[in-house]
Specification:
alpha/beta, 4-stranded parallel beta sheet, 41% helix, 18% strand
Amino acid sequence: MGEIKTIGILTSGGDAPGMNAAIRSAARTAISRGLKVKGIKRGYMGLLNEEIIDMQARNVSDIIQRGGTILGTARCLEFKRLDIQQKAAEICRQHGIDGIVVIGGDGSYRGAQALSRQGINTVGVPGTIDLDIACTEYTIGFDTAVNTAMQAIDRVKDTSSSHERCSIIEVMGRNAGYIALWCGIANGAEDVLLPEKYQYDEQEIIDHIIESRKKGKTHHLIINAEGIGHSTSMARRIEAATGVETRATILGYMQRGGNPTAMDRYYASIMGAYAVDIMLKGKTNRVVGYTHGQFTDFDIEEALQMQKSIDDYQYEVAQLLTI
């Protein structure tokens, strides 16, 4: 790879609180290192449409506290095609872009990997509320999403207790159960349903509700992960089986929005700067991660092959605390 003079920054896939902090940090770090910076709007789709703007330090002023992404994001399924990848690399060259910082999840990394194969330096930054990237213990947006969900669940729990209901609250996370696990513990749920652990034995939940009622428990909180879903139909079946009024609440996209927490702003800022600096050291096709208290980086291929699962002990604690 040649000398880096100009970098592009794009956000791809689902938005996550803290992405703006990463954009700001990457841009200002690059400028302080003497590089030119170009913002690529609407992810890989925007790259193909040449929605590319020059960025100065002032362009990223007063954005660190904002949710979402000022660059916008979009899905781009056609980017899986080799001819489209070649076109994107050629567009980068035409605009003088030597490398791109890609802020997003595993799908975004596959796009970055493809660009790297076409000769464009790429470094990924983990931006996803799902915490489902195996090479890192932290992903930008997770802390904000968990806190947003926790606060909403507290409110539903108050009214559920007043009406002596069972409440099923569905949280996001795609096929990963981390938001559900954290909220299950933080909100004091009676049942926590995770895609990684759930055996789809609804009778067990029904029995748990009935037993709790016999012991004098007047309400019951179930945290259900998006990867399991079907909360509304589950609520109908549980009410029919137990006679307990049961309501489903799907928190949905509210978990993606809102001002990022201090943790998300901090980690995003360090990761954005780290991405630029390792690119300047000649690295490409890398993903920034945080493991064992250190910021580090992995080969994208290696990162995509890693598997991540719910920690058995943490799940055991979630179960124990439902007593």
